Amino acid sequence: MNSYNYRKIPIIFVVVKTQKYDISGLICLWALAESGIGGVLHALRLPFTGIFVGGFAVISIALIAWYSSDKNEILKALSIVLAVKLLASPHSPWQAYVAVAFQGLLSYFLFNHRQQYALRTIAFTTICLLESALQKILLAILIFGTEFLSAVDKSAINVAQSVGIELDSSVVTWLFVVYTLLHLLTGIFLGLWIPSLPQAIARAEDIANNDIEQHKPVETQNASSWKGLLFVLTGIALLLYFYLPDNAAFNLVSLLLRVILLTLTLTFAIGPLIKMLILKYLAKNKQNKAAINQVLIRLPHFRNKLIQHYYFARNNFRGIKAIKFFILGMLVFSLKGEDAATP
Predict the structure, then answer these.
(1) What is the separation of C-alpha 322 from the centre of its chain, rounded to a whole number of angstroms?
(2) Closest Cα partner for 50 from 101, 99, 123?
(3) CA distance 192 to 118
């Protein structure tokens, strides 16, 4: 009997040591990234909001994999985040749910154990950021077609020639390349940085909430401005009308019909189907219901803390160092369950 108790004590001690951090905070941070952080970052006037959102997501997922002893926790976190995204941000486009599912499933297969964590992380972040960029490019090609993109190129060449500039390459192709390259470099940077975060978090536990200046929440707004989109589309239409070559076999009416038909199909057929499946199998899942409600309750508190950490980092640091401190502060806050649980 004594021998049994003697062997049991060290096992309990090890379990307590490995459960030092609460990953439920990371799940909440991931959910915030997918359901509301875009509006916050847009209100704070940060550039490259899409990359910031994707960056917060992959950081949260990679650290969930690091601090979890069971890789099935990733699938559980994925189901919670998808459900919270649907409930907290029901107007999100269908492709956003596809991206979240892709990130969660990829992390489940990549992070099956901690061996070669750094290599797995850089593969994970690079693939996720590339998927985010390529998804938007492929969707643009699907909706507008290659004929439209070719017409934009020809119009841009004519505009350049009218002001005395010679263009020999595709403008659209270069835009796609630069956009993809920016996501690729971000993925590589995050993949190299994330493996160092557990040690940085352990050293930065003294970043207490009391040291963070209190700021009023920023009024958030929709990151996708319909006015801006309408302005861009109007500009493209005028460009095509005035500068489209006479011999170009391009029908603006057929393009308009194509855009309307595909947009309606994706919006009112594919989108509702994906949301219906999430609602039926994830949001109404009894096993996830308590965790989903807890995340929904904590989201406003997390959003306010994110704003406070942003202002503190901006007022005390500059450039990349400010961004790193901002993210690190949010991670420390997220992993300290006793602080995160206070709404």
Answers:
(1) 20
(2) 99
(3) 7
Tokens 């470099």 map to which residue? 185
DSSP secondary structure letter of residue 44: T
pLDDT above 70 covers a percentage of the chain that reads 67
Q: Quote the CA–CA distance of 230 and 326 in Å, as a whole number.
A: 34
Query: How many Å apart are CA 260 and CA 258, to the nearest integer?
Result: 6
Q: What is the pTM of this model?
A: 0.75
Q: Tokens at residue 242, please? A: 């005035």
Residue linked to tokens 């004519």: 158
Helices and strands in the chain, H and E counts: 15, 0
| Least confident interval from 12-16, 21-25, 247-251, 330-334 | 12-16
Nearest C-alpha neighbor of 194 from the set 90, 252, 107: 107
Rounded Cα distance, 22 and 160, in Å: 57
pLDDT digits (tens, 9 = 90+) for 272-294: 888 888 888 888 877 788 899 99
Specify the amino acid at residue 66: W
Residue 113 — pLDDT band, cuts 50, 70, 90?
A: confident
**Residue of 105, 31, 116 whose CA lies nearest to 72:** 105
- Select from 342, 340, 294 the least CA-distant residue to 21: 340
Distance separating alpha carbons of residues 279 and 240, to the nearest angstrom: 43
DSSP single-letter state for residue 210: G
Give per-residue pLDDT as tens, 54-101.
898 999 999 999 998 888 999 999 999 999 999 988 888 888 899 999
What secondary structure letter does DSSP report for 189?
H
